[in-house]
Fold this sequence. Notes:
Helices cover 27% and strands 28% of the residues. It has helices at residues 4-14, 20-28, 60-69, 87-96, 109-121, 158-162, and strands at 49-52, 55-57, 77-81, 101-106, 127-131, 144-149, 164-175, 180-188, 191-200. The protein binds S-adenosyl-L-homocysteine. S-adenosyl-L-homocysteine is lined by residues 55-58, 81-82, 84-85, 87-88, 105-108, 111, 133-135, 150-151, 203, 205-207, 210.
Amino acid sequence: MLSKSRLLKHWQESGIIKDKKILEAFKKIPREKFIKKEQGEEAYGDYPLPIGGGQTISQPTTVMLMTQALELKPGDKVLEVGTGSGYQAAIISRIIGKSGKLVSTEIVPELAESARQNIEKIGLKNVEIVHHDGSKGYINESPYDKIIVTAACPRIPKPLVSQLRENGIIVAPVGSLNEQVMVKARKKGSRLIEENLGDFMFVPLRGKHGY
Ligand code: SAH
């Protein structure tokens, strides 16, 4: 059985996801609303699913791991690069709450539009989805407390580092097109103090600082 409760049990028993706020957000956000209707049955399988245009919605465990790595707090200002379906955005939105703000960038206009509709349907008001090359960051709303990149990048794009606040956290899959390491980094001065969270595989980051 592919179910929400099975995933919750898996995360709690394995200790992969401990943060109560994240488990709560997962319970509240309907993942089935972010995937194609004909795949509704698979909403709670722990694997990525196609969302059109050759792009994918990341697997639930990956979404939660990245969210946990961001150490989100209510009121945080967050930048996401790669809105895709908008599911990761919805999870972040719940955790940062009304006093927080998420700016999510998507390079494919059709995906930006459908993600906007998905987010509107579930009534989240603290998310702004912009059709934009997020590899350049989004300077208008910077600096950010946290930045998440949900596409594979050759290296952490420089503009993202400069748009991150001092002590802020950036989480991004960095590596080759076939395999990346999930990097969690904290900004100290102009440097990043990096941690490695394991191997992953994402669709490639496009745009100026992508592949
Ligand atoms: N976070 C998404 C999964 C994203 S898949 C979710 O929850 O569904 C990666 C997305 O990054 C794709 O939609 C792709 O079109 C987008 N993308 C790739 N390069 C980008 C860029 N330079 N700027 C913004 N979005 C980009």
